[in-house]
């Protein structure tokens, strides 16, 4: 195998995201080479302002790949694209594709493409986000024509009551554990026909998904990174090569459609 002849995927990630690159490399295996660029650090600004800044700088940031030929680019930050709504997100990705000279998709658009390919119309949203951003995410999927059956919030630390307690729950996708994900899902009764969508590229999900596949082998499981890796292989025309079992599972399901 000529390592440097493989299709090339560019990935743009938030600066503190510890999850996207490892998951993309595990998911894609030996079939694609992954190259990354990071959004700028935005000290002293709130979450929403930070996400808006990401959208503002993204067109110029794609230029940081220079003359490197890429076969596709994934913007691995779901939250910033939720702010745009489905139509705005799609138009933005089309504009970015023209600028970059190759297909560019946000992780949100990759999820929508996967839902269409899998025939998914109902979701249960598993979210590590603050409640306002979770609500924005839910509105995005509903405006895209999907039914959100319920939302499973996954805080990094639960809220506690009382004068000496910590108060509100703490939300941080980057430190959510596999055990926390599984515990919150097991506390819910899920409709049989709802797909589980784990939103956000920063919450590590591969171990949790592997456990859920063993428990419910027929349920559709989607994540921002899994759907993006599926889209990248598809758009780059990759049909073989070693890849993660979760990606093989998703590809088999889409072929059956």
UniProtKB/TrEMBL annotation:
Its EC number is 5.2.1.1. Keywords: Isomerase. It comes from the Bacteria. One of its GO terms (molecular function) is maleate isomerase activity. The keyword tRNA-binding does not apply. The keyword Amino-acid biosynthesis does not apply. InterPro entries: Iso_Racemase_Enz_sf (IPR053714), MaiA/AMDase (IPR026286). This is Maleate isomerase. It comes from Streptomyces clavifer.
